[in-house]
Amino acid sequence: MRKYTSAWLIAIIILSVLLSGCTRSGGSTKIELGEVTRSVFYAPQYVALANGYFKNEGLDVELRTTAGGDKTMTALLSGAIDIALVGAETSIYVSQQGSDDPVISFADLTQTDGTFLVARKEVQNFKWDSLKGSEFLGQRKGGMPQMAGEFTLKKFGIDPHKDLELIQNVDFANIPAAFISGTGDYVQLFEPQASILEKTGQGHVIASFGTESGKLPYTVYMTKKSYLTEHSEQVQKFTNAIRKAQVWVKDHTPEEIAKTVAPFFKDTDQAILVSSIKRYKEQGTYADSPVLSEDSWNNLLNVMSSAGELKQRIPVTQLVDNTYATKALQSH
């Protein structure tokens, strides 16, 4: 009898250890969230954390910056993170390589490209064709910033690989520093880097790639299909929190948003945060809804096809599950 009792005790201890990886004190469910970079581009996410929307849903979300789309996807596929905030194109790349456990997007966060065209010198009456023959400091090949940038340039009759001296050998994190040090006549930058360069007089924002490239599922929340199946309730709660944050961001001023997300940008001047958020709000970058639309998905396929990165068109229903986003809309 004692032998069986010991076996039960051992089983209970093992089960407790396993469960401890899923829950924390207070009964909240732990979710490991990886973001592709730290940026005010993702302001609604930081609002959800700062305002306690995840906690109100019974979730303990641990955020980490996984620095790059390839590293973020590796972390997701390996199980190092549960949910990834990354460009929707990454799920297509995984699908093109073949996967028994596909990566599914379930909530939209940003609906336009987040980069701006920054010139070294102030430009009056800017026209896109003035870029021809210039030295252009671009982004990583195959990444959404570069593909959306190329899509825009082609829209204005510019072949980025023939009409420009295109530089793509600089790591994402080092692009602003490379431009400041003298590389390139023009550069493609996210906020707050664009506003920082303007404030210091080292660059001038002259156009928006987000405005010109149209609606895109630029940065979305995604996870493996197996995780959706096993943790459906948690994913719904996560999406509910994001939806609350989207509504809050829509209803509040750049100044109010900047104050709320400031703890996530301790080294960034408050005025720069306000300027960055104002730009994104004015061009409709922050998604009003977590639902990923078929039109924006099809535009993504067009952008990838134009960049030569799409093997075949994939219907939105194959890699997107809007069930959670639709339910979040109905509840909030």
CATH superfamily of the largest domain: Periplasmic binding protein-like II
Which sequence of strands runs across the widest sheet?
Answer: 2-1-3-10-4
**CATH architecture grouping of the largest domain:** 3-Layer(aba) Sandwich
CATH topology category name of the largest domain:
D-Maltodextrin-Binding Protein, domain 2
- Protein structure class: alpha/beta
Highest CATH level, the class of the largest domain:
Alpha Beta
Q: Kindly state the number of beta strands.
A: 10
N→C terminal distance:
54 Å
What composes the largest sheet? 5 strands, mixed
Average pLDDT for all residues: 90
Which percent bin holds the helix content? 40-55%
Shape: globular
Helix and strand pattern: HEHHEHEHEEEHEHEHEHEHHHHHHH
How many helical elements?
16
What Rg do the Cα atoms give? 21 Å
What would you say this structure looks like, in words?
By secondary structure, this protein is α/β, with parallel strands linked by helices. The chain has two domains: 21-112 and 216-331, D-Maltodextrin-Binding Protein, domain 2; 115-213, D-Maltodextrin-Binding Protein, domain 2, CATH 3.40.190. It has helices spanning 2-20, 43-50, 53-56, 69-78, 89-97, 144-155, 175-180, 193-200, 209-213, 225-230, 232-251, 254-261, 270-282, 294-306, 316-319, 323-331; strands at 29-35, 59-65, 83-86, 103-110, 115-119, 135-137, 165-167, 186-190, 204-208, 219-224. The protein has a five-stranded mixed β-sheet with strand order 2-1-3-10-4, with helices on both faces. It has a five-stranded mixed β-sheet with strand order 7-6-8-5-9, sandwiched between helices. Helix 6 (144-155) links the parallel strand 6 and strand 7 (165-167). Helix 2 (43-50) packs across helix 12 (254-261). The protein is globular, with a radius of gyration of 21 Å. The protein starts with a helix and ends with a helix.
